[in-house]
Amino acid sequence: MRKAIAYSPRPESLEGYCTGCRLCERMCSLEHFDVFNSARSRIRVVSFEGGLEIPVTCNHCGLCLDSCPLNLIKLDDKLGVIKIDEEKCNGCRSCIEVCPIGAITLDPNSNKALKCDLCGGKPICVEYCPAKVLALHGRSDPEEVRSRRREFAAVLASEKVLRRPSHSGAVAIKGLNKITKEACK
């Protein structure tokens, strides 16, 4: 079974949303490159209008598997993760272009593709998230994923839960709908 890190907001708690602290990005770069550098992270915190912050990382959908002209992207059945052989990557960006959520990036130092590898099964971002909104999950069937995204969008639209003006939730839902449509194609 493939696995992925999921953003799981907890509306019952004020601390149940991403605060935008970017500790996940820093810890990821520290784990992989021994440096605090968000540009070298495999997880990105995306900012939306209204102060909404959402961590985005590879959901291991497999769309990139056939994109590499050197065939360097493989499914690791043991870990349930799709990996890029970063040592052999030539930085052609084919995988970056095919990723619908922008989860594959180019390392600014080596110019090689980076994507979440779940830190060998124990993601450091999940461990260090102070809001505890990141969790490692087994990938579900597409309809269950769409259902969870719709529930999350409904939570975002609730002014009481967000403690922000209601138009912020509407803008966030628009952005999430775009991401969801691309990811579920």
Describe this structure in words.
Helices cover 32% and strands 18% of the residues. The protein has a single domain (3-139), classed as 2-Layer Sandwich (Alpha-Beta Plaits). The strands form 4 sheets. The chain has a two-stranded antiparallel ribbon. A two-stranded antiparallel sheet has the order 2-3. A two-stranded antiparallel ribbon has the order 4-5. The chain has helices at residues 23-33, 94-98, 124-128, 142-157, 159-162, 166-183, and strands at residues 3-7, 43-48, 52-57, 73-76, 81-84, 105-106, 113-114, 134-138. The chain has 185 residues and is α+β, with helices and mostly antiparallel strands.
How would the blueprint of this fold be written?
Elements lengths: L2 E5 L15 H11 L9 E6 L3 E6 L15 E4 L4 E4 L9 H5 L6 E2 L6 E2 L9 H5 L5 E5 L3 H16 L1 H4 L3 H18 L2
Antiparallel strand pairs: 1-8, 2-3, 4-5, 6-7
Helix pairs in contact: 4-6
